[in-house]
């Protein structure tokens, strides 16, 4: 049985910063990008050497703008990447040039190590390991090939049960004890990489989230080797799970006695099973068994990124979490999207991409929460709402739009706002609380939510209201439309046969309205 690390998987909060660090600063090759195998709406990136060789792979689950985790026992706390020992000086200089703070070099078990933190504050060590070489060094970055990252050197595991954790790794994954330094036992594999088992008694427990290492995966020659470990773990009543087919490898998950998630992954079929070496990492793939997911919808929902040196959106620190989707051939139109209760900044993107495939979409996430899910303001009952919260969030959203206009160069009079349910209700409130902010909007399944409406002159405001015939909230749509018309807005309305949910029936109605609006603008 082969032994050694196959890959290490982490969780990142910002995909662009992640790509800039691992592909840009470290010069690793992006060898694969896929939709998540457990959640297709989650982007998964793989970095490695030129061929994505097992042992070189560092992978990231992208939880864009997700909640941060905490490193502690029951987790891998840091990882190290192998470089030539003579390259330490090069990397020390490069870190200073890129503005990354480094510590060291320090001697760790007889080899020099430079400690850095990636954009998620994960500790990444560059370890001078002269005997660890990649069979396919990547020479496609600006890092000279002699200084390139070769492969994964190792990982540090925090455990409250050091003896049991060490025995588990030695018994099932082919590692043997090499040396001890204080609270750390260093285990080495046949491949030459290492696992440092650190006694973390007295530490706090780890918590999953962005900025943490999700698991370390060890190597297996083939399916038979994985099955053999599976059977052994079952006999020992360990926490083994079922086998998984990850397309690029087949694997087994288990938790070692200290709580760290361990994976055992086959070397084959490898990263080049669905794309040639020359174009590795340039195409988004969907897990083969995910037949219900639409690739075009996924491309809209998954966070976009640019490779180092390519143009990108420089996101600003504004009051609301937000996400852009830029189509391959944008026509200059911009839609600002406000989700319904329980949605997020990407929820409306697939629908609006169907409506206007060449439009740039700016999805925004509401800041209020209900049972942990985003909303735009607090509600007291399904039909009564916190008035102060509506006003406060409307003011904050107005400030967000002002900042977005300045930061991203938006033309306020050309922006179309689209709100659904809770988001549409914030929009119709904004029309009165902050007149002249919204000039054109689509209100989907909307109702009036303000208990007292200030006077507002909405002349020049163009609105489309779409309600559902079977929607419990639909009976309020007529009241909303009359109020908006009385205030001077131009209001078109339509009713779909369904209820509160959105669907394809909304698409042609919005498209027809947009076409009419564009024709009107053309005659002015």
Layout: helices, strands, pairs:
Elements: E1 5-12, H1 15-25, E2 29-35, E3 43-48, E4 57-62, E5 75-83, H2 88-98, E6 102-108, E7 111-117, E8 123-128, E9 151-159, H3 162-173, E10 176-181, E11 184-188, E12 194-199, E13 212-220, H4 223-235, E14 244-245, E15 249-255, E16 261-269, E17 284-285, H5 295-301, E18 322-325, E19 334-338, H6 349-355, E20 360-364, E21 368-370, E22 373-375, E23 379-381, E24 384-385, H7 387-408, E25 415-420, H8 422-433, E26 440-444, E27 462-468, H9 477-486, E28 490-496, H10 506-523
Parallel strand pairs: 1-4, 2-17, 5-8, 9-12, 13-16, 19-20, 19-25, 25-26, 26-27, 27-28
Antiparallel strand pairs: 1-13, 2-3, 3-4, 5-9, 6-7, 7-8, 10-11, 11-12, 14-15, 15-16, 18-20, 21-22, 23-24
């Amino acid at each position: 049985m082969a032994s050694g690390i196959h890959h290490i998987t982490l969780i990142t909060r910002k995909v662009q910063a992640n790509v800039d660090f691992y592909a840009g600063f470290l010069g690793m090759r992006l060898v694969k990008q896929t939709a998540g195998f457990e959640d297709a709406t989650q982007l998964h990136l793989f970095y490695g050497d030129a061929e994505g060789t097992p042992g070189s792979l560092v992978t990231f689950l992208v939880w864009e703008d997700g909640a941060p985790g905490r490193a502690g026992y029951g987790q891998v706390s840091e990882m190290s990447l192998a470089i030539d020992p003579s390259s330490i000086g090069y990397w020390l200089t490069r870190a200073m040039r890129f503005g990354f703070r480094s510590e060291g070099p320090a001697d760790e078990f007889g080899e020099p190590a430079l400690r850095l933190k990636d954009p998620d504050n994960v500790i990444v060590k560059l370890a001078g390991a002269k005997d660890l070489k990649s069979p396919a060094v990547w020479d496609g970055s600006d890092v000279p090939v002699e200084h390139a990252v070769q492969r994964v050197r190792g990982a540090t595991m925090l455990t409250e049960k050091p003896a049991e954790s060490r025995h588990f790794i030695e018994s099932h994954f082919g590692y043997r004890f090499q040396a001890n330094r204080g609270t750390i036992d260093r285990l080495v594999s046949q491949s030459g990489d290492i696992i440092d088992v650190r006694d973390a008694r007295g530490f706090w427990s780890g918590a999953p989230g962005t900025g943490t290492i999700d698991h370390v995966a060890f190597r297996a020659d083939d399916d038979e080797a994985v099955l053999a470990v599976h059977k052994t773990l079952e006999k020992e009543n360990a926490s083994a799970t079922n086998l998984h087919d990850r397309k690029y490898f087949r694997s087994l998950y288990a938790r070692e006695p200290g709580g760290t998630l361990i994976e055992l992954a086959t070397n084959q079929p490898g990263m080049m099973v669905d794309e040639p070496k020359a174009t590795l990492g340039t195409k988004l793939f969907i897990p083969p068994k995910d037949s219900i997911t639409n690739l075009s919808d996924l491309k809209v929902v998954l966070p976009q990124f640019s490779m180092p040196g390519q143009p990108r959106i420089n996101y600003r620190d504004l009051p609301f979490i937000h996400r852009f989707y830029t189509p391959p051939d944008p026509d200059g139109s911009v839609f600002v999207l406000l989700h319904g209760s329980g949605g997020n900044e990407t929820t409306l993107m697939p629908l609006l991409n169907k409506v206007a495939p060449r439009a740039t979409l700016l999805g925004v996430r509401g800041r209020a929460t209900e049972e942990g899910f985003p909303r735009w303001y607090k509600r007291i009952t399904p039909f009564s709402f916190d008035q102060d919260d509506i006003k406060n969030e409307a003011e904050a959203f107005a400030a967000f739009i002002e900042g977005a206009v300045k930061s991203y160069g938006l033309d306020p009079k050309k922006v179309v706002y689209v709100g659904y349910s809770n988001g549409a209700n914030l929009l119709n409130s904004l029309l009165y609380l902050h007149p002249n902010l919204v000039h054109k909007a689509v209100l989907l399944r909307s109702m009036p939510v303000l208990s007292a409406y200030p006077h507002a002159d909405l002349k020049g405001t163009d609105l489309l209201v779409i309600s559902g015939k079977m929607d419990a909230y639909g009976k309020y749509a007529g009241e909303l439309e009359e109020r908006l018309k009385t205030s001077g807005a131009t209001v078109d309305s339509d009713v779909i046969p369904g209820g509160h949910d959105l669907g394809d029936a909304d698409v042609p109605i919005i498209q027809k309205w947009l076409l009419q609006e564009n024709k009107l603008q053309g005659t002015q």
